[in-house]
């Protein structure tokens, strides 16, 4: 592939670290990942065929879920690998330059933003906490003792029995939502002081996540590494005690994807007030 | 340079990694929606990206929100409608109820009122019953 045909796909920005740490790491399309340096910053890039990443191609391919998944996973695995070496600023998917020199120029032009965000995210990781409500995990209504069903009750009419069953199903479902709502509040209260920041993501649809039940909380927490153990202990206690019909799931550590925007905002605000950022 | 790794050596089967084996939905919501945006040389039409994001949000977010927005194309999109739309309707209804309930509970500082719920429950029960009867 000649240089004319090559583009540089940029994944993440970090402070300089030994490039050997990325030995063997492959990015989008299986191409090797390199570090491009400028001053006190590096950006991880890999060559990609330009014809696969020009405007036309991207437009068509971003709508292809299989292709998108492959790109998303490759992008994420490079961000994750760079993050193993220290603080990392993930870039948005499909940030593509006409070669490494252009990527270096971007570092030069946008360096102040990256430094500000890196400073705020150093020594911190993101942890995901999700809560699911799953009424089907509740005991079947039929198995519950039914109030008023005395010994002399006799046979219930089919219509009445049907309505009663429906009502019990509804009640069980309502109970689950109520329980889940209370759990969301409890989790939020318990974790608020253990994290530097919290971001709510949209609840995930089961069709994409494949998880049973309804996702009622999809939160990301920015946790200092020094407090990660404590955070996880508290989450684990909450998880182990989650009431029937609810479920807590934890994921992480993640590169601090969900907090780059607020880190940038905070840095900009500090700069506007003459602070050091 | 060594990063503190407080999670190392612990067995936590309930926790999924944020690494390469991470859940696709978790990965997509982060790489598409989060991360720093800098101008690349390849200009992707913003409208396309927005469309894409909306498409994915439909998968990531709940179906009812999209319906509220008047978007229902996924029901006709073979690439995305993996389930019959009947399931979507049921799910949407369930979602709507849940969201209303959560909103109401969050707004109210006091515990939720029991009586209106009980009435609604009975009403919905009989309606659902009639629907089911009719469909037989």
From TrEMBL, chain A:
Subcellular location: Gas vesicle
Chief location category: other
Biased composition (Basic and acidic residues): 165-177
GO biological process, one term: gas vesicle organization
Region of interest called Disordered, as start-end residue ranges on this chain: 136-177
Keywords: Gas vesicle
GO cellular component: gas vesicle
Family under the similarity heading: Belongs to the gas vesicle GvpF/GvpL family.
Protein name per Swiss-Prot or TrEMBL: Gas vesicle synthesis protein GvpL/GvpF
UniProtKB/TrEMBL annotation, chain B:
Subcellular location: Gas vesicle
Domain of life: Bacteria
InterPro entries on file: Gas-vesicle_GvpA-like, GvpA, GvpA-like_CS
Biased composition (Low complexity): 106-120
The protein's name: Gas vesicle protein
Record GO terms (molecular function): structural molecule activity
Organism expressing this protein natively: Marinactinospora thermotolerans DSM 45154
UniProt record similarity statement: Belongs to the gas vesicle GvpA family.
GO cellular component: gas vesicle; vesicle membrane
Keywords: Gas vesicle
Chain segments carrying region Disordered: 1-20, 106-136
A Pfam family the protein falls into: Gas_vesicle
Classification via PANTHER family: GAS VESICLE PROTEIN A1 (PTHR35344:SF4), GAS VESICLE STRUCTURAL PROTEIN 2-RELATED (PTHR35344)
């Amino acid at each position: 592939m000649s240089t004319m045909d090559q583009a540089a796909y940029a994944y993440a920005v970090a402070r300089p670290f030994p490039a050997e740490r990325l030995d063997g790491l492959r990015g989008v399309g299986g191409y090797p990942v390199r570090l491009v340096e400028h001053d006190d910053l590096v950006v991880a890039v890999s060559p990609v065929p330009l014809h696969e990443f020009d405007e036309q191609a991207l437009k068509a391919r971003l709508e292809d879920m299989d292709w998108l998944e492959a790109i998303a996973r490759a992008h994420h695995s490079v961000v994750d690998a760079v993050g193993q070496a220290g603080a990392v600023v993930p870039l948005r998917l499909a940030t593509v330059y006409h070669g490494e020199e252009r990527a270096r120029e971007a570092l030069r032009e946008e360096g102040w933003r990256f430094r500000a965000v890196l400073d705020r995210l150093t020594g911190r990781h993101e942890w995901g906490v999700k809560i699911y409500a799953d009424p089907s995990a509740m005991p079947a209504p039929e198995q519950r003792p039914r109030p008023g069903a005395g010994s002399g009750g006799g046979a219930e009419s089919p219509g009445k029995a049907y309505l009663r069953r429906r009502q019990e199903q509804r009640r069980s479902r309502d109970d689950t939502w109520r329980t889940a709502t209370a759990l969301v509040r409890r989790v939020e209260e318990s974790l608020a002081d253990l994290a530097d920041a919290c971001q709510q993501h949209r609840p995930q649809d089961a069709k994409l996540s494949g998880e049973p039940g309804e996702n009622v909380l999809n939160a990301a927490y920015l946790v200092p590494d020094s407090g990660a153990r404590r955070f996880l202990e508290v989450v684990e206690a909450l998880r182990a005690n989650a009431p029937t019909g609810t479920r807590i799931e934890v994921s992480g550590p993640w590169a601090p994807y969900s907090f780059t925007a607020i880190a940038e905002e905070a840095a900009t605000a500090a700069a506007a007030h003459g602070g050091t950022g | 340079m060594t990063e503190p790794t407080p999670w190392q050596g612990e067995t936590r089967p309930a926790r999924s990694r944020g690494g390469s084996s991470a859940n696709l939905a978790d990965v997509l919501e982060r790489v598409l929606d989060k991360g720093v945006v800098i101008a690349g040389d390849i200009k992707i039409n913003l409208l396309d990206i927005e469309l894409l994001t909306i498409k994915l949000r439909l998968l990531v977010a709940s179906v009812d929100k999209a319906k509220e927005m008047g978007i229902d194309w996924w029901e006709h999109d073979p690439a995305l409608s993996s389930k019959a739309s009947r399931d979507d309707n049921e799910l949407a209804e369930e979602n709507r109820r849940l969201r209303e309930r959560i909103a109401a509970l969050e707004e109210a500082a006091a515990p939720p009122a029991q009586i209106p719920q009980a009435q609604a429950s009975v009403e919905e029960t009989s309606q659902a019953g009639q629907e089911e009867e009719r469909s037989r």
